[in-house]
Specification:
Layout (H helix, E strand, L loop, with lengths): L2 E6 L6 H14 L4 E4 L2 E3 L3 H10 L5 H4 L2 E3 L5 H8 L5 H14 L2 E5 L7 E3 L2 E2 H8 L3 E5 L5 H14 L4 E7 L8 H14 L3 E5 L12 H7 L6 H8 L1
Parallel strand pairs: 1-5, 1-8, 2-5, 3-4, 8-9, 9-10
Antiparallel strand pairs: 6-7
The structure holds adenosine-5'-triphosphate and magnesium ion.
Length: 231
């Protein structure tokens, strides 16, 4: 399987936005790109946005094979809803999508140690799919800790890490933490910074199209370098 598994240091860091930017940019390069949101909780907007950005024509039920109504960690939501999350189904769906496309852009759920079912975490899913990780992180005080913990967790489990993309979810004054985070984290972890996506004022995620994601997100990511690592 070829592609990238996009995870974050936390929920709400911009995994979907970065995944949409990457998918739209790959598609614009003539690459047949598939998208997968293996597990969604609370809503299916992420999968819909990824479908729109990538132009993938796969069935929405394949793009998001597991949906849980409660906006909770998947194992907790599944227990509440009396559902057993079928990891085998996710794996088979990913396999089918990867046979249909040149590259797969997969968005995880939350961060690496979010439980999908008892004893099976997002990190295990990334490992099962044999895809390198791209970590989306914030630039702010605390980012060194969150990002290095995510990298250590991946390395301890034998998951390859392609790089880190920083995403400014909010507009903030850029102090010393913001300015130094990427360089410090790269030095301490040996994982490259592959981009810094600035706050995209007024970008309406329910209406934005592929061009918006290319210009406002992917333009700030080192796409050639990323492609070299993942393909
Ligand atoms: N660069 C950006 N500029 C402006 N707004 C952004 C940017 N990145 C993310 N956002 C906003 O922050 C919110 C969270 O981003 P996003 O949904 O991509 O995060 P996520 O990590 O995928 O979250 P989840 O864990 O829920 O899947 C989005 O609704 C979006 O409006
Ligand atoms: Mg998301």
């Amino acid at each position: 399987m070829k592609g990238v598994f996009i995870t974050g240091t936390d929920t709400g860091v911009g995994k979907t936005v970065v995944a949409a930017g990457i998918a739209a940019s790959l598609k614009a390069r003539g690459i047949r790109v598939g998208v997968l949101k293996p597990v969604a909780t609370g809503g299916r907007e992420d999968a819909e946005l990824l479908r729109r950005a990538s132009g993938a024509e796969d069935d929405p039920a394949m793009i998001n094979p597991v949906f849980l109504r409660h906006a909770l960690a998947p194992s907790v939501a599944a227990e509440l809803e009396g559902i057993e999350v079928d990891v085998g189904r996710i794996r088979r769906t990913a396999q089918t999508l990867s046979e249909r496309h040149d590259l797969l852009v997969v968005e995880g759920v939350g961060g690496l140690l979010v439980p999908i079912r008892d004893g099976f975490f997002v990190a295990d899913l990334a490992l099962t799919l044999e895809l390198p990780l791209l970590i989306v992180a914030r630039r702010r005080l605390g980012a060194i800790n969150h990002t290095l913990m995510t990298i250590e967790c991946a390395k301890a489990r034998g998951i390859a890490v392609a790089g880190v993309v920083y995403n400014d979810v909010n507009w903030t004054e850029k102090g010393t933490s913001e300015q130094t985070n990427p360089e410090v984290i790269e030095r301490l972890s040996d994982v490259p910074c592959l981009g810094i996506v600035p706050f995209a004022e007024g970008l309406d995620f329910t209406h934005a199209g592929p061009e918006d994601f290319i210009q406002r997100v992917a333009a700030h990511i080192q796409m050639d370098r990323l492609l070299g690592i993942i393909s």
